[in-house]
């Protein structure tokens, strides 16, 4: 008997890619929705004629937003993925050459932070007949290399499609990478210009609708048993809650776990908003940009349960934040992160791990004295923050603006910050009103993420919570680096509230410069090479030129009314205010952070800073 021939459909490679992508679905909170939320595009000769043609046919199923800068539109896709807790993603597509390389930084952000981002980039001709083509970088000894190979270092999945049949294997593999909790990160697919338009008889089953679910890997029971046994020995236990708690949707389990056993919880920057401010065992942010309360507990803890964190140096104080003999239990979906720094590894889903440990701990209770100490430290930190955000008779500060916006915002409003001094100021002074409402991009510390990421977050937020605002904190330095998505937000009707805090340059790096004995140089506008007198940028006028409503205020006395106008506005609203970038920092205890300091210098201040660093380094945990 002759086999029935497989049904096929002749499509270009680009058409098949888009059609397959449009037929991928995911179930979220009982509702079926498309896995891909659409994408961001800047078209050029490398992606407009074929991929652009294919996307046009599916513009309703996969809405495409016009970007202003390739880096910022990929950052917007990252902001969307964060808001969606990695359960949906967006793509970013650019032409060949500089359009594509502009997305390298965003790929670094997604890779560092374990976030889904699909990059569809034009590439040179597979046939090579027209070579060298516009925007092609030639490698004399290896014609297979293009600038797209630069993405290998910042991609979880990388492929260059050299035959249209390859996407039958490659595209599903890329999608699995994007939704896998352990391997999540950017997927890069290079699309040579000629191959995009080549046809193939694709099997129709390739385009059948598929429903995906995010995998929840159960930890090994023996690893859970070992973790429970170790935690039972603790006299001073501590939980470090990272961003993975939110991606696992385990915030309720974390709160219940802490409450049941009296366990103090501290948060990483990515884990801010795991617990609301009212939770009695929420002991604040830990690490270099942390709180007195969290860091005091970290220094004494004997068993530390680190959940959903990669334990980067701002969390660990370059590994000086903890007692030398402290034992770690690392709960993480990724084996690489779970096994770090001599930890007892529990590889698996955070929600399932917390439930299993909760059940297995039985009648265990944290010693009352330690729980009481944690609560006392938290009360003392609350008192400090209350005073720190109070305007008083002093120049305006980051903390005051953060505190005022926090007081005035709605429960489900989202706050976005990145890089510079604002991650520390938001992390330390923001009081979480609702879980999952804080996005501080500090894994890759990417200046320029703020407005772009917030635009993507607002697109995501508008799908489920259209009446809530996305509030952006940005410094003048980051604003000058990347601000064009103010225009994007106005064009797309995705309102943002943007608070520009002008401290006269790259003030936080000036602070680091001074703290390591260096003279102020090339960071503050006043200390850089200029012709004539320095002058201030009129950020409000600039924002208005892009269609936003905007105003400049003189200080905190005007902040509340300006914020009320921003809340009432139907379009993006920018508030610009000068702040003290010299003395206006949150100054309480932060852990040490290791940076390179010259071993010899003509400045005695640098020599003194190096000597102090040598002393501080003695507290560093050794080994891995």
Q: Termini separation (Å)?
A: 63 Å
**Mean pLDDT score:** 96
Number of strands: 23
**How many domains, as an integer?**
4
What is the percent of helical residues? 25-40%
> Uncertain segments of ≥5 residues (pLDDT<50)?
none
Top-tier CATH class of the largest domain = Alpha Beta
Which structural class should the secondary elements be placed in?
alpha/beta
CATH third-tier fold name of the largest domain? Rossmann fold
Widest sheet: strand order?
Answer: 5-4-6-7-9-8
CATH superfamily of the largest domain: Thiamin diphosphate (ThDP)-binding fold, Pyr/PP domains
Radius of gyration: 25 Å
The number of helical elements comes to 24
Please state roughly what percent of the residues sit in beta strands, choosing from under 5%, 5-15%, 15-25%, 25-35%, 35-45% or over 45%. 15-25%
Q: Main beta sheet, described?
A: 6 strands, parallel
CATH architectural designation of the largest domain: 3-Layer(aba) Sandwich
Bulk shape: globular
């Amino acid at each position: 008997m002759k086999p029935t021939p497989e049904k096929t459909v002749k499509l270009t490679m680009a058409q098949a890619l888009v059609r397959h992508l449009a037929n991928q679905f995911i179930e979220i909170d009982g509702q079926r929705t498309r896995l891909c939320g659409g994408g961001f595009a800047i078209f050029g000769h490398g992606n407009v004629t074929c991929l652009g043609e294919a996307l046009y046919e599916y513009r309703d199923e996969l809405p495409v937003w016009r970007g202003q800068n390739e880096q910022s539109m990929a950052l917007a896709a990252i902001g969307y993925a964060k808001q969606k807790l990695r359960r949906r993603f967006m793509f970013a597509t650019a032409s060949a050459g500089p359009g594509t390389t502009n997305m390298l930084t965003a790929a670094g952000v997604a890779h560092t932070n374990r976030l889904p981002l699909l990059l569809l980039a034009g590439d040179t001709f597979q046939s090579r007949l027209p070579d060298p083509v516009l925007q092609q970088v030639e490698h004399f000894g290896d014609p297979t290399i293009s600038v797209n190979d630069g993405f290998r270092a910042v991609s979880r999945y990388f492929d260059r499609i050299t035959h249209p049949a390859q996407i039958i294997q490659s595209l599903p593999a890329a999608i699995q990478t994007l939704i896998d909790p352990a391997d999540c990160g950017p997927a890069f697919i290079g699309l040579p210009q000629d191959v995009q338009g080549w046809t193939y008889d694709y099997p129709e089953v390739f385009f059948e609708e598929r429903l995906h679910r995010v995998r929840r890997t159960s930890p090994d029971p023996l690893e859970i048993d070992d973790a429970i046994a170790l935690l039972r020995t603790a006299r001073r236990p501590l939980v470090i809650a990272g961003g993975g708690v939110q991606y696992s949707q385990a915030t309720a389990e974390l709160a219940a776990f802490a409450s049941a056993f009296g366990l103090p919880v501290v948060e990483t920057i990515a884990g801010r908003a795991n617990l609301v401010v009212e939770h009695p065992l929420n002991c604040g942010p830990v690490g270099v940009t942390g709180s007195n309360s969290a860091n005091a507990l970290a220094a004494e803890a004997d068993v530390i349960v680190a959940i959903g964190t990669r334990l980067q140096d701002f969390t660990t104080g370059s590994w000086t934040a903890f007692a030398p003999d402290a034992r770690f239990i690392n709960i993480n979906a990724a084996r690489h992160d779970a096994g770090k720094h001599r930890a007892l590894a529990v590889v698996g889903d955070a929600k399932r791990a917390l439930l299993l440990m909760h059940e297995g701990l039985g009648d265990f209770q944290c010693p009352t004295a330690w729980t009481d100490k944690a609560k006392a430290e938290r009360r003392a930190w609350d008192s400090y923050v209350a005073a720190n955000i109070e305007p008083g008779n002093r120049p305006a500060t980051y903390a005051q603006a953060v505190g005022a916006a926090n007081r005035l915002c709605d429960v489900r409003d989202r706050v976005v910050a990145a890089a510079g001094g604002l991650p520390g100021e938001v992390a330390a002074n923001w009081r979480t009103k609702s879980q999952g409402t804080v996005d501080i991009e500090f894994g890759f510390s990417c200046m320029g993420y703020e407005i772009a990421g917030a635009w993507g977050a607002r697109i995501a937020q508008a799908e489920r919570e259209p009446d809530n605002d996305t509030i952006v904190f940005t410094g003048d330095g980051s604003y000058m680096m990347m601000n064009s998505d103010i225009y994007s937000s106005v064009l797309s009707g995705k309102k943002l509230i943007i608070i520009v805090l002008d401290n006269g340059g790259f003030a936080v790096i000036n602070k680091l410069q001074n703290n390591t004995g260096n003279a102020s140089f090339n960071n503050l506008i006043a200390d850089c090479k200029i012709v004539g007198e320095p002058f201030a940028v009129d950020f409000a006028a600039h924002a208005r030129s892009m269609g936003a409503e905007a105003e400049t205020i003189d200080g905190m006395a005007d902040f509340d009314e300006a914020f009320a106008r921003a809340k009432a506005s139907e379009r993006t609203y920018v508030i610009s205010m000068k702040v003290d970038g010299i003395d206006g920092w949150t100054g309480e205890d932060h852990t040490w952070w290791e940076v390179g300091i010259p071993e010899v210098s003509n400045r005695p201040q640098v020599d003194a800073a190096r000597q102090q660093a040598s002393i501080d380094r003695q507290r560093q945990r050794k080994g891995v």
